[in-house]
Amino acid sequence: MTTEYERMLDRALRPRDRLSRGRYAPSPSGPLHLGNARTALLAWLQVRLSGGRFVMRMEDLDRSRVRPGGAKQIIDDLRWMGLDWDEGPDVGGETGPYEQSARDGIYAAALARLRDAHTIFPCFCSRKDIEKAASAPHGSDGPIYPGTCRDRDLAFKETGGGSTALRYRVAAGRIEVEDVVTGSIVQDLSRDVGDFVVRRSDGVFAYQFAVVVDDALMGVTDVVRGVDLRESTPRQLALFRALDLPAPRYWHVPLMADGDGNRMSKRDGSESVMMFRARGGQPAELVGQLATSVGLCPPETSVSVEELLNAHDLSSFTHVLRHIGRVGLHIAPRRRN
Ligand code: GLU
What stretches of 50-121 show up as alpha helix (H) in DSSP? Predict the structure, then answer.
């Protein structure tokens, strides 16, 4: 019998009509701040300038962080800016569902492939255990897993309660990803990251794993996202390879800083699109400010997303992004498990 996963995989691997497919994948854990809005705008521009299709995906896997009404507000804010998408939670589409919370069965099927290939193992270490391990050096994303459980019995049984974390056993060797904006990203996962979690001990699939399954099965060819996720890319590439899935191209774009030069965040009350709207701001004003901040239009310009699209082609857009990628702020990567 063909499973849902196989059906989706089959479609994802079918030779494409060469159309690019981009996506924006917000987490509905707080209001969309201006930095999020700028990344969404850049992702939209990249795919529209390529004549491709745009997918909206809600990354709501971690139920404990989801804010009630958050997804609806994000969608409303993005539409207010003038952005549109061809597939998404509110419009449907053939690669859905578009909420990660509705894709558990798909992740479980992908996970079974890793288990069959003996590339994952159950890990009983707490965060404290890992931090305490005398030899645990720190990578860019926290302490490097010391390998305590990596040789555990592979034929472990799922207990059903999902009380054991599952980690992907990384191989030694260089992984290199050519990022369109920031150039080459090189890591040796065994040295720089260590075996990483694909399913948490509370049963929630990890971001690193879900994002790979989704990007592949949604046929994404181009990922435009914040540079804070750049260091995650080699981990994701390792999973694409382990699952025999096609990997997209990556465009890591600078994060936006607030007036004090600090990185914006959903928690610290950074200027949000909602606040901008509440003050009577207009879409063209916001889009103008966001586009100006990356050099896509002259200062003090009010501009609609359509006008911005008409003012650029893919090559001028890429050129501008490469420029800000070089001069962009260096922001410490955020922690990801
Ligand atoms: N959901 C992630 C976020 O809101 C983005 C993930 C990605 O673009 O890969 O930060």
Answer: 70-81, 104-116
Cα of 56 from ligand 1 centre, angstroms: 11
Q: How confident is the model at residue 136 (pLDDT cuts 50, 70, 90)?
A: low
Question: Could you identify the residue written with the tokens 């962080």?
Answer: 65
Cβ-contact 273, 33 below 8 angstroms: yes
Tokens found for residue 146: 């010391």
Give the CATH number of the domain where residue 98 resides.
Answer: 3.40.50.620
Mutate-to-test residue for ligand 1 from 204, 225, 252, highest number of ligand atoms within 8 A of CB: 225
> Could you report how far apart the first and last alpha carbons of the chain are, in Å?
34
Rounded mean pLDDT, 22-50: 97
Q: Ligand 1 centroid to 1 CA: how many Å?
A: 34
Per-residue pLDDT at 141:
72
> Can you tell me whether residue 192 is helix, strand or coil?
helix
The pTM score is 0.93
Domain encompassing residue 154: 1-337
User: Is the CB–ligand 1 distance for residue 218 below 6 Å?
Assistant: no
Q: How far is the CA of 173 from the centre of ligand 1 (A)?
A: 26
Task: Assess whether pLDDT exceeds 60 at residue 61.
Answer: yes
Q: Give catalytic status of residue 266 as yes or no.
A: yes
Mean pLDDT of 21-31: 97
235 lines ligand 1 (CB under 6 A): no
Whose structure tokens read 């996202």? 225
Mutation to probe ligand 1, out of 58, 205, 207 (largest number of atoms < 8 A from CB): 207
Q: Number of folded domains in the chain?
A: 1
Q: Give the Å distance between the CA of 27 and the centre of ligand 1.
A: 6
Atom of ligand 1 at shortest range from CA of 26 = 4
Pick the range with the lowest mean pLDDT from 186-190, 247-251, 267-271, 272-276: 267-271
Residues present in the chain in total: 337
Distances (CA, A) of 8 to 2, 42, 92, 116: 10, 28, 15, 19
Residue 288: how many other CB atoms lie within 10 Å = 22
